[in-house]
Design brief:
- This protein is an alpha/beta fold and 301 residues long.
- It folds into 3 domains: 72 residues, Winged helix-like DNA-binding domain superfamily/Winged helix DNA-binding domain (Arc Repressor Mutant, subunit A, Orthogonal Bundle), CATH 1.10.10; 116 residues, D-Maltodextrin-Binding Protein, domain 2 (3-Layer(aba) Sandwich), CATH 3.40.190; 105 residues, D-Maltodextrin-Binding Protein, domain 2 (3-Layer(aba) Sandwich), CATH 3.40.190.
- It has 11 helices and 11 strands.
- Helix 5 crosses helix 11.
- The termini are far apart.
Length: 301
């Protein structure tokens, strides 16, 4: 019979398209990973992968087996979670994935509140790229994901929580007045600074840039919201920053002016997601309620 480890290696190769990258993700040597996959193929009596210098491509039967393997790995992770603590008693450790454009500016007080309500519940927060974390969630490597829509997955429960306004910011000496509503006429030709294009926020920034005739500054991708903040304050360009960041103690608007006056209607939708069959749904719903309530309070201040 196949082992869970062999199935995990196969799924990781499917996700990365590369034996070398999959070995790094799985924290094993490439020869070990390759040998385990060959053993899996021998046990099943089918060819799962087409190997080439360009990478690894699943065969038709390989694609079907990977789909089943994902469910098996997810179920195995849920068994571990169920054994670690009762879902009704809210005990054990939950691995919560979130984007660095949201988590640091929202989660700290929520985690403190949850700890008071459920002292035996532990949250292990992991920041990352939303699309990559959706894969991690489906594979069982994280238990719950808090981040921007869109999210999708047939095996997931996805619960929208709130809408967060996004604001266009500039250096204090920028010629556009903070009281003026941005228009295509005043913004055409302006440089818009963004994060790595894999972030949802960067994709929204690209849409805003197109709408207002701005251009994305490709040589100045920020590594965090704070780096965008600093680059904008130094006059390198404009940026799109979330409300929760601008209102937070660790973020803020120092050295910036907000250009989004009357008529500006740009926002992002935040949701929480977990595997539909997870035994920890009670804990996830509790987290969802507190995230929504805290965010609504912060955004109304």
């Amino acid at each position: 019979m196949p082992t869970l480890r062999q199935l995990e290696y196969l799924v990781t190769i499917a996700d990365t398209g590369s034996f070398a990258v999959a070995a790094r993700v799985a924290h094993v040597s490439q020869p070990t990973l390759s040998q385990q996959v060959r053993t899996l193929e021998e046990r099943l009596g089918v060819k799962l992968l087409e190997r080439s210098t360009a990478g690894a491509i699943l065969t038709p039967v390989g694609r079907s087996i990977v789909a089943t393997a994902r469910r098996m790995l997810s179920d195995a992770s849920d068994i571990v979670a169920l054994a670690a603590g009762s879902a009704n008693m809210l005990t054990g450790t939950l691995r919560l994935g979130t984007t660095p454009t949201l988590g640091p500016y929202l989660l700290s007080p929520i985690i403190a509140e949850l700890h008071r309500m459920a002292p035996q519940l532990r949250l292990h927060v992991r920041e990352g790229i939303p699309d990559e974390q959706l894969l991690e969630l489906s594979r069982g490597n994280i238990d719950v994901l808090l981040g921007p829509l869109p999210m999708a997955g047939d095996d997931l429960t996805i619960e929208p929580l709130f809408r967060e306004p996004l604001h266009l910011v500039a250096a204090l000496d920028h010629p556009i007045e903070a009281s003026d509503s941005p228009t295509r006429e005043t913004l055409t030709g302006s440089a818009l600074l963004t994060l790595d294009p894999r972030h949802h926020l960067a994709r929204q920034a690209a849409e805003v840039a197109e709408q207002y005739g701005m251009h994305i500054a490709p040589d100045y991708y920020g590594t965090s919201l704070e780096s965008l903040h600093q680059m904008v304050a130094s006059g390198l360009g404009l940026a799109l920053l979330p409300s929760l960041y601008l209102h937070s103690e660790i973020g803020g608007a120092s050295g910036l002016k907000v250009l989004t006056g009357k008529g500006w209607r740009v926002h992002r939708s935040i949701a929480i997601a977990w595997r539909r069959q997870s035994p920890m749904s009670a804990a996830f719903k509790l987290i969802a309620d507190h995230v929504k309530a805290r965010a609504v309070r912060l955004l109304s201040e």
